[in-house]
Amino acid sequence: MLQQAIDAGSTRPGTARPYARWYPAYVLILLALANTFNYLDRNIISILAEAIKADLKVSDAQIGFLNGTIFAALYAIFGMPMGRLADRSNQPRLMGIGLSLWSAMTAFSGFASSFAMLSLARVGVSVGEATANPCSHAIIAGYFQPVQRARAYAVYLAGIFLGMGCALAIGGVVLHNWAAFSAQFSFLQGTPAWKATFWICGIPGLILALLIFRVPDPRAAQTAAVTVSKGSPWIGFLADVAAVLPPTSFFAAARRGRGVLVWNLIAGAGLAALAATLSMLTGDWQQWTALGFATYAVFAFAQMIRWQDKPLFALTFGTRSFRYLVIGMSAIACIHNALLFWAVPYLLRTFKISAASGGVTMGIILALAGGLGIAAGGYAADVIRRRDLRASIWITLTCMAAAMPAAVVMFTTGDVDTFYVAFTIFAFFHNAWAASSAAVIQELVLPRMRATGAGSFSMLIIVSNFALGPYLVGKVSTVTGSLAFGSLAMYALAPVGIYCLLRAVRTVPADIADREARAHARGEAQLATSL
To answer: Transmembrane ranges (predicted)?
Structure first.
């Protein structure tokens, strides 16, 4: 599949010189490895949850907040501005900086002695990982042609399952063997195994970052115009961040007009009131404060680009297909990722499986079944796309329908072998639609908007499913005393996802076909000719 993905990707139209035939494959492998570390560092908490709970005295809801909400809130604040920064700067170098940051902060998590300190470390991980999707998606789109992109994205996204599988396997092995290993060294004695796991997972990413930093930006060899920002891209990035964070966001809105400021204040006040109400009802003020900030950041960013870059707004937030795909796929991702996160704690609690045995078994299943699923989904998307631009929608709906029965069996069976079989099926379909969704977003926007389009789409999905999914399952589990009930209750979101995706069936082909016309109508000065 890798060779098929790079065929015709090595000689792009509009390039000053062709890439060496092997080079796109090399870049794709580096990005897939970076994505592996991305999900390794992000999901390692899943296998460490029980140990962290015991050592730091935290609840399921706090673990869900730590793994989901805090990540999503920071991703919302930095993710979309990071996409704009990637479109205005050297994308591989920015990716290398981000990988260095999140790897270093993962290692720093191993020094946490309190919930607050661990939360601070995860903030750094979130900021670093905000570079991953905008930069990687744009780099891949620059090195590969549209008819190969779904397969290329499938290779890249296979790193999700390799990373999550490694997180479970590495975490399980370290938890099981750390006591015996550390006893041989006096300076390690007394160090909890979960802290050592963070060190082991964080440090290797720093080496990979050096290799990615040296990759050429694919836009440098293209004759198609690339938008160059006035002044330093980093100053623009800081201005974008300031525009989505109160109180500086109020001043930014005021510069665009009184009406913009009024709507900004109304949105801020409404979200603050809603967050305060939900905090009083649930007692989880960190959760709802973070989610309130994330939602406000999305609103403020949409306001900002509507004023600063009308063509970009028209092809993202202003496009009906973009909105339908975001809401529909967010609902499916929220269900699947929440169930996947809590599957490991459920296995350990229900079947009394050791962390080493359960982590290694689940890790192998996840890496193999999940990787095969996303590869199959990417290949199917490229085949179907040749005759139907709605391939991503059909694949997403199919994956949801196939994963649901497996999830029900997984959280209701009393037999561990049946659990593993159901988990294998669920892992195969859980994210098999991701490559096709990444590819279709690149077709909805112009080349100069690739990183921002990918960053906005992935950010909206990540905020919704990470900020709500793990927390909601953890909260329902805490209230009802049933982790199985809390997990399966997530399927209440399924009708929302199905409705929006079926609406997108009618709009995607037309919105792809007239993207240049709509951008030109909003003032696009020079349309890029290279896909």
So the answer is: 21-40, 60-78, 99-121, 153-175, 196-214, 261-281, 287-305, 325-348, 360-381, 393-413, 419-441, 453-473, 479-502
CA distances, 193 to each of 55, 110, 200, 352, 356 (Å): 11, 9, 11, 19, 12
Q: Are 176 and 356 in contact (CB under 8 A)?
A: yes
> What integer pLDDT is reported at residue 153 of this predicted model?
85
Please give the mean pLDDT across all residues of the chain.
83
In this structure, the number of other CB atoms found within 10 A of the CB of residue 277 comes to 11
pLDDT band of residue 527 (cuts 50, 70, 90) is very low
Nearest alpha carbon to residue 219 among 88, 323, 373, 342: 88
4-59 pLDDT per residue, tens: 433 433 444 334 345 677 888 999 999 999 999 998 888 788 778 878 888 888 77
Residues 6+ apart with CB under 8 A from 412: 484, 488
Residue 322 exposed, middle or buried by CB count within 10 Å (0-12, 13-18, 19+)? buried
Mean pLDDT (whole number) for 217-240? 65
- Measured distance CA(381)–CA(1) in Å, rounded: 13
pLDDT at 525: 66
Q: Which residues contact 283 (CB under 8 A, 6 or more apart)?
A: none
Task: In whole angstroms, give the CA distance from residue 136 to residue 141.
Answer: 9
**Tokens at residue 499, please?**
């409705």
**Residue 73 tokens, joined:** 């809130």
Per-residue confidence (pLDDT) for residue 528, from 0 to 100: 44
Query: By three-state DSSP, how is residue 222 classified?
Result: strand
The residues, any chain, with a CB within 8 Å of residue 445's CB and separated by 6 or more, are 312, 315, 316, 452, 453, 515
pTM of the full structure: 0.73
Q: What angle do CA 440, 442, 445 make, to 5 degrees?
A: 115
57: left (phi over 0), alpha (psi -120 to 50) or beta: left
Sign of CA dihedral 242, 245, 247, 250: positive
β-bridge partners, 222? 15
- Report all structural domains of the chain as residue ranges with CATH numbers, in order of start: 2-14+21-221+309-521 (1.20.1250.20), 232-308 (no CATH)
Record the tokens describing residue 430, joined without a space.
């859980």
Q: Token match 């297909």: residue?
A: 321
Give yes or no for a cis peptide into 405 (omega within 30° of 0): no
pLDDT tens per residue, range 307-342: 888 898 999 888 999 999 989 998 998 898 889 888
Q: Report how many helices (DSSP H) and strands (DSSP E) the chain contains, helices first.
A: 25, 0
Distance between CA atoms of residues 425 and 341, nearest Å: 16
The string of pLDDT tens digits covering residues 443-496 is 888 888 887 887 788 777 877 776 777 778 888 888 888 888 988 999 999 999
Which residues are CB-contacts of 185 (< 8 A; sequence separation ≥ 6)? Answer: none
Distance of CA 152 to the CA centre of its chain: 17
Token pair of 117, please? 């300190």
pLDDT band at 68 (very low <50, low <70, confident <90, very high): low
